[in-house]
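pinging the channel bc i need a second pair of eyes. not urgent but kinda urgent?? the chain im working w is below, pasted from the shared doc
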Amino acid sequence: MHLVQLFLPLYDNENRELPRELFGEVRRELVERFGGMTAFNRAPVDGLWATDGKTVRDDLIIFEVMAEVLEPGWWAEYRAELERRFRQDELVIRAQEIQRL
């Protein structure tokens, strides 16, 4: 079993708030494909990273799904599509193997 996490920004690269409909669309797509999802969206998380000698900050929400089989090719295509929709140079989607207890 795999836990897949999508780190989605609340603002685009020009610091414009992204439409809530984008997040609803991703929710629907994940539920349809994986049968459910979890959203950590009560309080956005802060993402920080260094680039070109300065620190960049993002407000993020995290969507998670559990998948029996990890499909890296599908996830790479979906990530590219989300980068386009969310007007991002790069989005992080990560996966880890988990054991259901």
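so The radius of gyration is 14 Å. and The chain is about 30% helix and 40% strand. — does that match what u expected or am i reading it wrong
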